[in-house]
Amino acid sequence: MSGRNFRSLRYILNRMIGISQSSEKRAIIDIGSNTVRLVVYNGPPRAPVVVLNEKVNAKLGKDLGRTGAISDKSMRTALAALSRFAALLRLLGVDNIECVATAAARDAANGPQFLDAVRGFGLSPRLLSGEEEARASATGVIAAFPGAKGVAADLGGGSLELVEIDSATPGGICPGGITLPFGTLRLPDMRALGPQKFTDAVRSGLQARGWQKGRGVPLYIVGGSWRALALQAMRVLNWPVDDPHGFELSASEALRLSRMFEKGKPENPDPRISGSRLATLADAAALMAQLVANLHPSKLVFSSWGLREGLLHMQLPPAVQQESPMLASVAAFAESARVDAADAVRVADWTAPVCRDTRADGDLRKAASLLALAAMRTEPNMRTEEALTWALRKRWIGLDMCGRGMMAMTVFANSGMTQAPPEFGRLADKCDLDRAIGWGLAVRLCRRLTGGTARGMAASSLEIRGDALVLTLQEPARPLYGASNGKDLKCLADWLGLTWRVESDTGVLIEA
Q1: DSSP for residue 2
Q2: In 3-state terms, what secondary structure has residue 264?
């Protein structure tokens, strides 16, 4: 691994140590057509952590189609919530606050009066245009999935936004995004006209806006009602991961499940789906089925990041935007377990010569090594359970399902276990898990041989020469070698299909 890569990793890790201690809290208030929400974040800017998340189902857009205005009841509910949010932020001492309003306030005749009332709480609401709303949501997807290319689809209470995204485009967002009046508050009336008229309405809406993008590329799914659909799909499929972020469905599977869910409330709903989201599930599924049928995507990828995270990402300097969110989040997590950044860099450097990385493995192996070291800070009898929890339940931004399985397998192997749990086999192919086992066994050898000390690693090295795994010990490190880490060396060599030997600067010490 190049020195430049390790300098970059050291920069990120050292930066995380300061950020996790002193990062500024940032708040987003999202005044949507269905919910009014406050989210407070801190932690690393590139992978923000939620510290407070409150929402109220004000349904500001509920009567817009009939009256053209926000109802008095909805306005009172929203303003009461916003008054509370403003007070909470003052008590928390949060100064970095971005307050935005979307479709309901944009479309309602009394929207300006509503926003004036919001200003009375000391907030500064910004009314987003449909294009700005779509760009912010798409930016959230790009921030969560570096390198994403496809279409971002954000379903809110009042509207549906579609934006083409491509990491090769400056800013990642292609021109020509559209907003359609297909929000969850409007879908019941549309579907009440019958299945054929609903199908025609969606198709004609797309055609009227000239939307012909999305064929054969991923469709990135954003919005609370669609996340609820993902949870229900995961339940039906007995998916081993709890978090819907990063969950994928093939287009055909998404269409099959959407047709199933659009029929009404499921018989066995996922208990994590709130009552309000459950009420919109069938309508959201019906719209998803139409999008799949019209856009012909290659697959669907569910994103828990959208408008709010996109707004946060837009605040960041370009250099921070380019950081790996996976490394940022794992580094902050590892630091909370008191894993020293410099130690993690040295271990990754020491093990690199024997880790048969693919081109895509770079950041993933670094993150996996970090997590393996963090696991050593937990009780020995809890490490297996911890690894399973981290893999299957914790949210990792910028990490796909294969990466989840490989990181957890690295932690397992670092503890001496080379048998992959069945759940991991659903996340990653065997060849990927096997490679991760090699990573973990290398980390295990390094830490048990050198004690994780800088001088111990500097006085030893590991490499592959021909068909042999060679451990070289300089004089200060020779007493470190013993039967226990000898077994670790043999285990790693066997796993890699190599013979092994131990050398010093004077010649071969031990040979298999």
Answers
A1: -
A2: coil
Residue given tokens 């994103």 in the structure block: 303
Q: Residues 6 or more apart from 97 whose CB is under 8 A from it? A: 26, 27, 28, 29, 89, 123, 124
Beta pairing class for 149-155 and 160-166: antiparallel
Task: Quickly list DSSP for 90-112.
Answer: HHHT--EEEEEE-HHHHH-TTHH
User: What does the alpha-carbon distance between residue 436 and residue 137 come to, in Å, rounded to a whole number?
Assistant: 34
pLDDT of 39 reads 98
DSSP string, 325-387: HHHHHHHHHHHHTT--HHHHHHHHHHHGGG----GGGHHHHHHHHHHHHHHTTS-GGGHHHHH
The CA distance from 95 to 189, in Å, is 41
pLDDT above 60: residue 18:
no
Strand partners, 220: 152, 301
Concatenating the DSSP letter of every residue in 5-37 gives HHHHHHHHHHHHHHHHHHPPPEEEEEE-SS-EE
From the list 237, 235, 234, 233, the residue with the least C-alpha distance to 258 is 233
At 363, the pLDDT band (50, 70, 90 cuts) reads: confident
Fold of 325-511: Hypothetical protein af1432 (1.10.3210)
Of residues 364, 23, 330, 315, the one with CA closest to residue 140: 315
Handedness of CA 261, 263, 268, 270 (dihedral sign): positive
Residue indicated by tokens 């969850």: 184
**How does strand 299-302 pair with strand 460-465?**
unpaired
- Predicted local confidence at residue 9, as pLDDT: 52
Q: For the domain with range 20-127, which CATH number is right: 3.60.140.10, 3.30.457.10, 3.30.420.40, 3.30.710.10?
A: 3.30.420.40
Q: Alpha helix (H) ranges present in 28-70?
A: 64-67
CATH number of 131-309: 3.30.420.150
Return the axis-axis angle of helices 325-336 and 341-351, rounded to nearest 10°: 120
Cα dihedral value 109, 154, 89, 72, nearest 10: 30
Radius of gyration of the chain (CA): 26
pTM for this entry: 0.89
> In sequence order, which ranges of 60-173 are alpha helices (DSSP H)?
64-67, 72-92, 103-107, 111-119, 130-144
Q: Look at residue 509 in the predicted model and tell me its pLDDT.
A: 81
**Is 471 in contact with 502 (CB distance < 8 Å)?**
yes
Q: Are 369 and 392 in contact (CB under 8 A)?
A: no
Tokens representing 114 are 């509503």
